[in-house]
Design a protein that fits this description.
CATH topology of the largest domain: Rossmann fold
Helix content: 25-40%
Oligomer: single chain
Radius of gyration: 22 Å
Order of helices and strands: HHEHEHEHEEHEHHEEEHHHHH
CATH superfamily of the largest domain: Vaccinia Virus protein VP39
CATH class of the largest domain: Alpha Beta
Largest sheet: 7 strands, mixed
Number of strands: 9
Length: 308
């Protein structure tokens, strides 16, 4: 049976356009023996869009740190679009794939042709449920093309292993990327921004057009590079989980002032005094505060809670 990929690629080359508008010049992943994986609807249901353009694959690869024998955990390996490229540069790649058919096909490809997939271990499972600490020994880096609807939960799961992660490199929806890197004072700055910048130093490296994916999403994507540690190293918070819950409470209703959002945790006078110490108005809102401001406010509220 002729692989459906042959037909798809032929049609694309005849009719599709690249991001620059040149007809018939789309660059696709070279046809490789594991056509088994070309099951678009399988991952479409999971919200994923496959990075099919080989030019964009190479551009992303060029941004990634290269160290011999480093361990990388790949989230959402799909058809192996990036897996082989990662492994080819002497990395140990632990490729996580949630879709059973894709994971089985990818595992079969690595077993039938190990020379093309050196150092690749395929793990079938949900990254939100897998204990990453048991998959890798020592420190590791992360690469992932994340389904848009689980971007935040995936990041929160990764941050639980922040002490062992050297860097995170994710392809995500552009709007979500903008929120991750947003600075205090802007409309896009929120709880996700604060948490990501607490653990990492995020930076948008590439804007990726919809045409680079199959099927193409309706919006642009971004490659976000996140080095660890972030502000966490400077702030030295003793109870990090409690601190992040406190930050979450500050952002619980963005249109309300901090005094209103923190009414259940501290009296208005304490909050106003803490804000004044940071040069902020009594009616300040959470999006105006830096992580250092949150840390100072958190410490002030905790002192007020302590007896004596």
């Amino acid at each position: 049976m002729v692989c459906r990929a042959v037909k798809l690629i032929g049609e694309a080359r005849r009719g599709m356009r690249t991001a620059t508008g040149a007809p018939g010049r789309c660059r696709f992943v070279p046809l490789i023996p594991h056509c088994y994986t070309l099951v678009p609807m399988a991952r479409q249901r999971l919200g994923q869009h496959f990075l099919a353009d080989s030019g964009w694959q190479r551009r992303i690869l060029q941004t990634l740190p290269r160290g011999n024998h480093e361990t990388w955990i790949e989230i959402g390996a799909g058809h192996g679009e990036m897996t082989r490229l990662l492994a080819a540069e002497d990395r140990h790649v632990i490729a996580i794939e949630a879709d059973e058919r894709l994971a089985s096909g990818l595992r079969r490809a690595t077993e039938e042709n190990p020379a093309q997939w050196p150092g690749v271990d395929v793990v079938r499972g949900d990254v939100l449920r897998i204990d990453l600490a048991k998959l890798a020994d020592g420190e590791f880096r992360v690469y992932g093309n994340l389904p848009y609807y689980i971007t935040s939960p995936t990041l929160m799961a990764l941050f639980r292993h922040a002490d062992r992660i050297r860097s995170i490199h994710i392809v995500i929806q552009w709007e979500v990327a903008a929120r991750i890197v947003a600075r205090p004072g802007g409309r896009e700055y929120g709880y996700l921004s604060a948490v990501c910048q607490f653990y990492t130093r995020p930076e948008i490296l590439l804007r990726i057009p919809p045409g680079a994916f199959r099927p193409p999403p309706k919006v642009a994507s971004a490659l976000v590079h996140m080095d660890l540690p972030g502000e966490r190293a400077k702030l030295a918070i003793s109870d990090e989980q409690r601190f992040l819950k406190f930050v979450g409470a500050c952002f619980s209703q963005k249109r309300k002032t901090l005094r209103n959002n923190l009414r259940a945790l501290a009296n208005a006078e304490e909050v106003s005094e803490a804000l004044a110490e940071r040069g902020l108005r009594p009616d300040a809102r959470a999006e105006q505060l830096s992580l250092a401001d949150f840390a100072r406010l958190f410490a002030r509220v905790r002192r007020a809670e302590s007896p004596g």
